[in-house]
Amino acid sequence: MPKYLFYGSYTPEGYQGLVQEGGSKRIEAAKQALGSVGGSLEAFYFSFGEKDFYIIVDLPNNVTTTAVTLAGNLSGTFSIHGVPLLTAEELNQAVATMLAEVSKLGYLINLDSDLRLNKPQLDINIDRERASGLGLSVSEIGSTLETLLGGRAVTNFKQGTKQYDVIVQMKPSARATPDIIRNIYVQGSGGLVQLANAITVEKTVAPKELNHYNRLRSATITASLVPGANLGKALDDLDAIARDQLPSNIKREYAGQSLEYKTSSSALYFMFLLAIVFIYLVLAAQFESFVHPFTILLSVPLAVFGALLTLFIFGQSLNIYSQIGLIMLIGLVTKNSILIVEFANQQRARGLDLIEAVIEAATIRLRPILMTSFATIFGILPIAIGLGAGAESRRPLGLVVVGGMLFSTFLTLVIVPVVYTMLARVTKGRAPSEIGSENIEATIAVEKQPV
Length: 451
What we know:
By secondary structure, the protein is α+β, with helices and mostly antiparallel strands.
């Protein structure tokens, strides 16, 4: 039957009951629950220092782990979930499959794994039914092999001021080959029984060390990217390989730089969405409308498209720096749309027709839009070119900002007026009295100044 590892945490009440009454009741409850589905308990471990435990069980092939509920009769409960307990050979087969498939990608080099089955060992398999028929128990066989092969201190004697251990063990010459294990005799209920009648010995290999991750046997695969390769694409390809080639009971986790990339990427995507929502709410409060912010934020997808296109043209990846640049673009490109929409609203408030107000706004605001946009572009251009120490890491940020600003600036002058003309029909232009007398007086004063 396949082995499974169950682990979980106690609630404070259940943990307190375990400390007070000991683990015997919990173990008996586990045995009873497993016995109802034809399973057996192999090992039960718990820690008084931490509120956790883990159990190794044998389950029949037709029983799923979700069908087993290990409920005890102590006060409180504990939650568990089970995963298959892999052998070193199964784990090594999974690693070999991954390495073989990853090597076909071409852009991952220096493939390596910390799992190596290079330690010779002997596996002794006991035929329990046959041993029981010969009057042998597993513990008797184990203790006999431990004593004769490994040695056991049975007593000691003193000679003068020194004390010596008396160790029972076979001579080195008598235990030099694996074949002698089958020739060892063990005392059974009917007399001496040769172990060859109850056991089989197999020569195998095992890892010198077997690492664990979250208490599960694990192997770490490492690789290096060729220059110009994308870490995000590499992780996506590795996920696809693991999903298609590995058994369903093999779990995978990220570590090191890959884990940092996944964590930071998810956080930055959330920040990107949060920035858009925040700017929308601020604009809605400023314009006292839920329609105009949509017109203004239309420049954001234009800028993002231009930024991604620039990264593709220059062969850069979407990494942490380029993602920061995308968040910067949200504030930079909405400025152009705000200039057009705000001035168009002012012109409509003065009584101009919608089309006339949009044309005048786009015409008058053209110069400040170009001035501020090109000032930003030329300010970021040294980063995009890649000058100075550490420029390779900062270059994607500069390319995103420069490409997004260039692309959005020119399209904003065309698309934003068109969209404003369509959406502004459902809004009403404010009357001049709503703008404020101070604003009107300031505007008139400016208009009266000679050119």
